[in-house]
Amino acid sequence: MDISPDLLDVEHLTQTYGNGAGDKTVLHNVTFSLSRHTSLALVGPSGCGKSTLLLIVSGLLQPSGGTVTLDNVIRTGPGRDVGVVFQQYGLFPWKTTRDNILLGARMQNIRVSEDTLTELVQELGIQGLGHLYPNQISGGQRQRVALARALLLDPKLLMLDEPFAALDAITREHLQNHLLSVFQRRRFSFILVTHNIEEAVFLGRRIAVMNSEQCGIQTIIDNPGMGRPEFREHPDFFRQVGIVRALLKDQ
């Protein structure tokens, strides 16, 4: 196998549901790569395969065809090198926030020191919440708990499926800034699934516009302005938003 300089290589990925004449193809011949320490935002209409693609790359769903290669190793299932954060957080209501954060590490028999845990919760601004349950903290705090659980495994790649969709606009923007800050300090790569064009432009170093008719990626846009908190106020931001919006309207 050729050695790739990229972190992630997705080649000829196909996903078909059904078993016979009623088969439905969600993804067809999807190919792209992701460099180390960078980000990709996936946008497109509902049903175009964004979440399916995320599940396959994370190892939680086996594709009908094609390969996903992470760090030059073909993925056949989930592992600690890929973290996943879902829209509904995936927190267990009967566990404290501390236990929810530690859950992934405990399932994989990974010992976590108190210093490591303390540093992470302070970095995410959720210190002092360890004894509380998910229904006792805000939506933004729950999202940070879910993010902490994923980051505790020190993943090479983080997969985010509409992570801020259920939050109000101000909290959403605040957490976008926080994710950007953590990303720059910890230097992982991430793939973000979102319906929000502005979010895609703010957080995606590259933006993949997906198309349900093509069952895959229509085009990938470079977004060199990503990475600066003040990018939201820059003319290039609004220009990029307009480009992505036009591509989605043309579908």
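The record above closes out task 2.4. Task 2.5 opens with a second protein, given below.
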Amino acid sequence: MDRSILQPVGDGTKAKNFYDDVVTIQQLLNEIAPQNGGPNPPLKVDGICGPKTKAAIQNFQLKHFGWKLADARVDPDGATLKKMNELAGAGDYKSLGFRMRRLQPDSQNAVASQTQIFLLQYLEGAWRSGIYTFSSMPVAVNPAAYPPIAFQGG
């Protein structure tokens, strides 16, 4: 799902640089591989549109649109935001789709430090599945304890 902003972000008097909008742009830029115009090193996601964020916006625009459109500003529904959404998360390998589901019924109330077990499925020719854990310590998972899940909807 494409991300949006309410007001312009970046340089100039038209840029309102609202906190949530700046965070969205910083996150989008960080999800873009450097070879596609993303920042290197990644931006600090702090909601402040400082010189590094403005430079990252302009460098992205230079790579994709040239000097004529490199105004260091991202407008809602503008070409820069559309291109950022298109490239965010696209690296050398781009899956056609994936879905992830927590397997524990009580996982909605789990604290962050507690082990979480997920079923991750991704599309590569056919749906492939794997069970993954997210934990601060090594965890042994018995796949037989988690039978296949039928997903409803998309």
